């Protein structure tokens, strides 16, 4: 942590968790259960983008503060960051899970953070089987080659690094990829080897192979300079909040 980053008194949250959400009443409680077991003082903000279900009630019942924001993941992430005063920020997707080993790894990293003051976690899917294993390994290879991580791997960074890149980019798609790119232009991004467990529901909605192919093509086109406002036309909205099982959380 940089010398200018204040250290809160003991028991005061050092970590603020920001969760952008839209129609996530089914998945959100499980993530909040995981976060309540973090071995560090934490403040959680759920930023709702206009849900038609009971997402806000689920957030409050799970011990999170709630903020209403304009729809759009980047806009919601920034609204949550601005609602917090913590020196560290962790951005998570609402349908992710944080296993016990990852909670411990997060606390350990915060106790002695990398000098770059930014990190993401390892990638793990919530289903078992050959195809899901292939996707996990493929993501590891892509990450090593490009240095880019998915947004559902979580993004942990100091308040200073967040402000240094001007916050999360306000893009209709690829806001997570662009945030990592901006961080890497001005410094390193560490990798915490413990995983954030990611829902496979988008892959299952589109079909596992077609879901993977869509993501690969969109990322490739973005890397070639195609604007997100064009790419988003080929990224159809999620069908529903309850499409499939709750992401498992390994013991």
Offer a concise description of the structure:
By secondary structure, the chain is an alpha/beta fold.
Overall description:
By secondary structure, the protein is of the alpha/beta class. The protein has a domain at 15-131 and 148-200: Spore Coat Polysaccharide Biosynthesis Protein SpsA, Chain A. Helix content is 39%, strand content 17%. It has a seven-stranded mixed sheet with strand order 3-2-1-4-6-5-7, with helices on both faces. Helix 2 links the parallel strand 2 and strand 3 (65-68).
Number of helices: 10
CATH topology of the domain at 15-131 and 148-200: Spore Coat Polysaccharide Biosynthesis Protein SpsA, Chain A
How is the largest sheet built, in terms of strand order?
A: 3-2-1-4-6-5-7
Please give the CATH class of the domain at 15-131 and 148-200: Alpha Beta
Which residues sit in consecutive blocks of at least 5 with pLDDT less than 50? none
CATH architectural arrangement of the domain at 15-131 and 148-200: Alpha-Beta Complex
Distance between the termini: 30 Å
Shape: globular
Q: Helix proportion of residues, in percent?
A: 25-40%
- Could you state the order of secondary-structure elements as H and E? EHEHEHEHEHEHHEHHH
Properties at a glance:
alpha/beta; 251 residues; 17% strand; single chain; Spore Coat Polysaccharide Biosynthesis Protein SpsA, Chain A; seven-stranded mixed β-sheet
Give the SSE map:
Layout: E1 15-21, H1 28-36, E2 42-48, H2 55-61, E3 65-68, H3 73-83, E4 88-91, H4 100-111, E5 118-125, H5 130-146, E6 155-158, H6 159-164, H7 175-185, E7 190-198, H8 201-206, H9 208-223, H10 228-231
Parallel strand pairs: 1-2, 1-4, 2-3, 5-7
Antiparallel strand pairs: 4-6, 5-6
């Amino acid at each position: 942590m940089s010398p200018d980053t204040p250290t809160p008194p003991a028991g005061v949250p050092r970590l603020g968790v920001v969760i952008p959400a839209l129609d996530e009443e089914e998945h959100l409680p499980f993530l909040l259960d995981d976060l309540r077991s973090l071995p560090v003082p934490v403040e959680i903000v759920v930023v709702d983008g206009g849900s038609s279900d009971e997402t806000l009630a689920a957030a409050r019942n799970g011990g999170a503060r709630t903020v209403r924001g304009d729809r759009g993941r980047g806009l919601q992430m920034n609204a949550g960051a601005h609602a917090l005063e913590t020196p560290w920020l962790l951005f998570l997707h609402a349908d992710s899970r944080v296993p016990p080993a990852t909670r411990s790894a997060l606390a350990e990293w915060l106790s002695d953070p990398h000098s770059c003051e930014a990190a993401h976690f390892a990638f793990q899917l919530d289903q078992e089987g050959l195809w899901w294993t292939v996707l996990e390994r493929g993501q590891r290879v892509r990450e090593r080659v490009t240095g880019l991580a998915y947004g559902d791997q979580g993004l942990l960074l100091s308040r200073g690094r967040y402000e240094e890149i001007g916050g999360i980019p306000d893009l209709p798609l690829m806001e997570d990829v662009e945030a990592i790119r901006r961080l890497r232009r001005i410094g390193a991004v560490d990798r915490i080897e413990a995983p954030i467990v990611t829902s496979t529901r988008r892959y299952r909605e589109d079909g596992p192979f077609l879901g993977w192919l869509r993501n690969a093509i969109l990322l490739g086109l973005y890397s070639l300079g195609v604007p997100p406002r064009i790419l988003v036309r080929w990224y159809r909205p999620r069908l529903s909040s309850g499409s499939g099982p709750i992401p498992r959380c390994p013991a």
